[in-house]
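Illustration: Carotenoid cleavage dioxygenase like a.
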Amino acid sequence: MANFAPVEEREEAIVLYNIHGIIPHDFPEGVYLRNGANPIFGGLKIAESIFGKSSQLWVEGEGMIHAMYFKKGSNGHWNISYNNKLVQTGTFQVEKDRKRPAFLPTVEGDPLAVLSAILLNSWRFGKMTKEYANTSCLIHSGRVYAITENHLPFEIDISTLQTLGSWDVNGGWTRPFTSHAKKAPHSGELVTMGFDPQKPFFEVGIISADGQKVAHKADLKFNRCTFCHEIGVTLRYNVILDFPIMLDARVLIKGKSFIKYDSKEFARIGVMPRHGDADSVTWFEVEPCVVFHILNCYEEDNEVVVIACRAPGSILSGPDHDFWETKNEWFSKGFKHFVQGSDESSADGLFFTRVHEWRLNIKSGQVKSRFLTGSQFSMDFPFINEHFTGLKNQFGYAQIVDSNASSVAGLAKYGGIAKLYLEEGEAEELIKVEYHMLPRNTFCTGAVFVAKTCGNEEDDGWIITFVHNENTNKSQVYMIDAKHFSNEPTATITLPRRVPYGFHGAFIT
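Result:
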């Protein structure tokens, strides 16, 4: 597992002194967080029975928050410290009390074994699977939450990283909660959604700016359960992705995977008034594809513009037959460099992700669609200056997939970061992209944009990210000047211990 392997919790924060370069004086005081999977009890689990076997994926490990604290002393010098803690969900506490694994793996494996695991978990613990809280960190109304979309968020004490309990918005939201809720421009309301294998399949919720109540809730009356990882916002609208990555536990009895991407099914993007309902959504049919992450959405004239990372296939799907014999080869092929015109049945390059733009005309119903980036690099985990969420922006950023390293590992490894110049490129051309590539065998996770204090322009700020050098087995934090993007990092901070690869980050001022 190398740097995908879990690490132990720290007892307390540790002060860091190994800093190369200079941390700018106008870098804001705050906390850089990154969430990620950190399986307890030493690693991944496999359950075997007369029905076959099911196994835990790395992405199913318990959530661990890694935190970097940036504080200025009275003398103006920076004091920097690091800490980490596991997110103590309800299912985490069950296994911690038992001092051994208790929940059976339910995501991948022989279909009947997966079905039996779901039924046994439900019978024994009242939950089909574990609460992971390992995907992202959300900040709303001064509170911080760890989230994965199959359950409620868990509130985190930012100073100690202790878990304070789940958040149901004072009883107003009791269903799954997206890992990527968005703050609406100007109003400060939090726009969320939750998908569920049982009806209602998809609901949208609007949480008040103070986080005290669900101001609006709407069942969008889906007739299928689609795995939707993101929701978008503009000044007036919510943007809904209904793409054909489908969840259906009923097919397990037929020997099929209950998570499946079907390129023959329909795909659509919905534009919904902020406090609308199912009947008020305007749907736009688009070409079937896979989108997990939205870079940004905004309104321009009569169009709603959606910019996202698009791939031809889904990493959540797997081979239908001979699963255990072919799964490693399947994932290895999926991360290979995509070649235009390749046979999708071979899985080569299915996970190759490019930045894509849809322009949805509210008046005419027309859809304009184009790729913004080429096939030089696969890129995902996009982010922007969050002050521009839901508003037209000039710049975006994304982590660059190292296709060769990822193919060898069968898991994504990100060998650099891209800066996207969204307004530099004609309608039929690719946009300008600038790259900050990492040293060989060095990979990043959880990259975020940190805006400069009193900055005047959208890209006044820094990219901050955890990186790990597999040659030295050392982890660091890089600070990259967004205006001098391809230059050496402004500062690198060496950590006292390895930080495993993870998912999404956030910076709290």
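Reading the tokens back as a structure: The chain is about 10% helix and 40% strand.
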